[in-house]
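Objective 1b. Sequence-to-structure analysis of DUF5689 domain-containing protein.
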Amino acid sequence: MNIMNVKKRVTVLLVTILITSCVQNDDFDIPVLAIEESVIPESGIIGIGAVLGSLAQEQLKDDAEAIITFDTPDQFVQGYVISSDRAGNFFKELIIQNAKENPTAGIRIAIDVNPMFTSYEFGRKVYIKLAGLSLGISNGVPTLGVLDGKVIGQIPSFSQNEYIIRSSEITTITPLELGIEDFSNNKLSMFIKINDVQFNKDAVLGTTTHTFAAEPTDQYDGERILESCTLGYSCILSTSTFSDFKGVLLPEKQGSIEGILTKNFFGDAFNIVINDPTALVFDNPERFDFSCGTADIAGTTVLFSDDFETQTNRKPITGNGWTIFTQEGTETWEAYTSDGTNPSQGISARVSSYGSEDERTIAWLVTPSINLDQQEGETLHFETSNSFADLSNLDIVFSKNWDGNPTTIANARWITLSEGYIIQNSDDFDEWYSSGIIDLSCETGVVYIAFRYTGSDTEDFDGTYELDNISIDYN
């Protein structure tokens, strides 16, 4: 064999080895690396809650876009990793919380590193050096990174080991159990568990079951409605269209979900993001749906109605079988009329947390009992308006097991009437919007229908809703 052929064969062999070794494959084992435990004095550790508190103080003095920059040497925050990019649902971010169970604070770290799960496994304790980093609100979530003009940018990859120090401790994370109704800004970036939830029936009970994030309309993220099977509240499960499980079908049953509480890209709505599909345990076949849909025309005979014209302006709604109940806070449904730029239709029912100074507001307006077995073809119609709803929420729910006692409202099972349209914050605040005609005819038994308002005195959640021309009819 001549020397040139030997060289060619060796070259081909080397190229083949190089090509094979460069094939991208994220399904690999995490390397076992020895960690030399860093000695960080307790005096240099600042709690995540304290760091977030410092930002909140600056926001009060300055504005919601305030940013603080750390320059004191040898200061660290410590926490436990609760995010994982192994399945591709997180990208160039690390989320930590301050305790392995019953956390009280969490924070996001923006860093130009991918993947991260090979170094920062779920449950690993880490220390974040603060000097040189800045903290601000990014996409509605407190985020640590480097200051890039007037925004929080990513920590450069070459600074990874300078700012993030691994501990040898890897622990079990116990999720914080919350109801959707308990979501708040001070629960952001925590690993939570929500029990008794299901996906909206339109995504799983129609002719085609939706995937997590592989529908033609999904861009960047797939957003799927999760509904509480106990109190009727709903939230969004957000999944990246780059995740490994984007094409997995959503489960039809109900159950529990574990994930991180965060916000959407615009920072104006709470989202749940999971590390991978094992976070869902949907093993209960019993669903709670209102599935009559909409009707083409309303019933011809009035069963219950109210236009609130007999109410006294600025006084709580009374009479006509209504139950009003303030579950949290001090605000309630009251009669209201206005001739300004947001005119009422005569007198309407209004509720608002604006100026209440209440940390949280939940106010109920409930119809008298409606017996759906005594007639046929029942329908519901109403109209809504608002004054800058912000992130406050009005939803329409019904219950078949509430006993009529206001003090037991929170313990009853309420199911969302998802077909009825309610004015959105993006709609014109000086207009009134029809709910459409909601078909009630497939339900049976005695039900209560409730208009439930959720808000607070914080700027993001302090909106106002008005309600008018409610009519339940039948044929």
